[in-house]
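Narrative summary of target 7.
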Amino acid sequence: MTLHDLGLGVDKGNEKVSIFLYADDVGLIPASEMDIQSILDIILCWYEKWGVLINTNKSKCVHFRNARTTRS
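Modeled conformation, tokenized:
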């Protein structure tokens, strides 16, 4: 299964965008909080398949949301 198969992300024209990649940076674009884990699971499978290592010491998570939205 691929990210495209999941159909997750935000609408951009006729497509869904769920991830941005630039050099060794990855940005996830979930449409909801529930989509985050699904996207992470697919990325983990891909990383394991191709032997990509994640440096958890340098990894960060930033969650952007509307200021009026309740924190979760």
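The first strand starts at residue 10 and ends at 12.
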